[in-house]
Amino acid sequence: MEKINTAVFVSGGGTNLEHLILSSKKGIMPHVDIKFVLSNKKDAYALTRAKNHNIPSYVSKDDSYILNLLKENNIRLIVLAGYLAILSSEFISNFERELNGKIINIHPSLIPSFCGKGYYGIKVHQKALEYGVKVSGASVHFVNEIPDGGKIIMQKAVKVKDDDTPESLQKRIMRLAEWKILPLASEKVAKMLLGEK
Fold first, then answer.
1. Which H or E element spans position 161?
2. Contact between residue 4 and residue 194 where contact means Cβ atoms under 8 Å apart
3. Which of 26, 39, 42 is nearest to 66 (CA)?
4. Catalytic option among 19, 31, 107, 141
């Protein structure tokens, strides 16, 4: 079966990375081949997760180095799984033009709510609770030059409980939404890149 060479970009603990790897082993992403993990932080626990699964990993913030790495591995799909650096518009356009690739991101809210510059991690859930929303969730979207501004690929809603804290809401959205839709969306985009419906 033809597969799309994929790189996963991370900055933190790597729970989404872990679920991508497990989903791959379970056959949920048959067209996705995770070639390496890249982090902008050398102390990201996600790098340990990659090592535990024998997946090569790299640490860099240098666009030209990263682009060369993507070219060497014929990467056509980048999955941002808790990657807290903003990719430059030049990097995005170079990757899409030179490798005919796509970049996708998981965001812990139902876009267009609580997204854009400054909305990441626990801050998203703090704002959702401050507003008193009854439903939140997660979104996977294509990455463009606007933070969280690309077309939505998949979303999943999660009910907000009256006694939620930002931490409890974050954990539930990860478990019920992020870990489910990121592998499914990755597979969907891989199939799209292969020219399948």
1. none
2. yes
3. 39
4. 107
